[in-house]
Amino acid sequence: MSGSSRTARVVLIATGGTIASSSGPDSAAVASRTAGEILGSVGPTDVEVEGRDLLNVGSYLLGHRELRVIAEAVAEELARDDVTGVVVSHGTDTMEETAYLLDLVHDSDKPVVLTGAQKAADRPDSDGPQNLREAIALAAAPQARGCGALICFAGRIFPAGRTRKQHTIAPEPFRAGDGGPIGRAGASGVQLTARPVRPARLDRPGPAFDETRVDVVTAHPGADAALARAAVDAGAMAVVLAGTGAGNGNHALLAWVSEAVRTGTIVGLSTRVAEGPVVPMYGNGGGADLTRAGALNLGGLPLYHARLLLALLLSQGVAVTQQTLEPYI
Ligand code: ASP
User: Fold this and answer.
1) Is 61 in the pocket of ligand 1 (CB under 6 A)?
2) Residue 1's pLDDT is what?
């Protein structure tokens, strides 16, 4: 394991996901394996690894409270003098959200590395053991210091800030928008070829985060404002509009944005497209009209990253403006 020291100590915080899943009698996979069990499949490494069982669920079941609990556990482990880095095993479905939250609040030079699997732990061809081995090597590697939260999957290393799950079942499901992976981990060790640019750290979420509601509403042919209104009626402090293309709506959504902004709802303008920034260039209900009506341009920040950023800021009482968002988008 090139780059790791003999005395490196990594803590694995297990949260569930496919990497911990086995099939039940109905053949549906369910997270059940402990940190010790998944570590048992990794084989010998020259890093000391300690397991901590935190959660044991599919990541499609996580709420804000669980994300906050993960952020607290990571901070606790990173604060230990004897710990070199932390690995979080996690379902792939919402790994991008947890990774981004951990990156936003990361207050250490030590790395935190998220990994998981696309094939359940009881399959002979499960990718979990190799992904975990490589994530441990990365968390122990001196070159990973100062990189914040990283995703290590299928031999590739991704920065949390722009990375999304972009394939449901492929063995390499993650892509970093407008850029590639920033390194590799594998038989030849860990090689980082770039370092992530990260904005100033935010405070870790407090209990108010658990109940801070931010919803996503998607534009599509024939979309009206009924769902956006329902989100606000349900208590959403902000609504992220996943516009078409570079961030466009239509006349019904434009009318809603004007009314919502006037009555104090934060409206963020993102895009339903997997990669590329919001560019307010069209009128007639397009992005230029939406931003003129007060929607905040979420730039190149991926859709669900944007939802999470707004929830974190609003839970901490930050007055969210275009200027507040600028360093993050
Ligand atoms: N497909 C998911 C996984 O990889 C399910 C989940 O997110 O837990 O773990």
Assistant:
1) no
2) 42
Catalytic residue among 7, 15, 18, 218: 18
The pLDDT, as a whole number, for residue 6 is: 53
Output the six-digit token pair for 80.
């230990």
Asked about 18 being catalytic, the answer comes back as yes
Which residue CA neighbors atom 6 of ligand 1 most closely? 91
* Domains, the chain, with CATH or none: 9-192 (3.40.50.1170), 212-328 (3.40.50.40)
317, exposed or middle or buried, with CB in 10 Å at 0-12, 13-18, 19+? exposed
Q: Is 25 helix (H, G, I), strand (E, B) or coil?
A: coil
**Tens digits of residue pLDDT in 4-22:** 445 899 999 999 999 999 9
Residue 21, beta-bridge partner list: 31
Q: Is the CB of 173 under 6 A from ligand 1?
A: no
pLDDT in tens, 240-292: 999 999 999 999 999 999 999 999 999 999 999 999 999 999 999 999 999 99
Please check the confidence at residue 2 and state whether its pLDDT lies above 50.
no
Please tell me if the CB atom of residue 92 comes closer than 6 angstroms to any atom of ligand 1.
yes
163-172 confidence digits (pLDDT tens)? 999 999 999 9
Strands (E), the chain: 9-14, 21-23, 29-31, 48-53, 85-89, 112-115, 149-153, 156-159, 163-165, 174-176, 183-186, 189-192, 214-218, 238-243, 266-271, 296-297
Q: Which atom of ligand 1 is nearest to the CA of 117?
A: 4
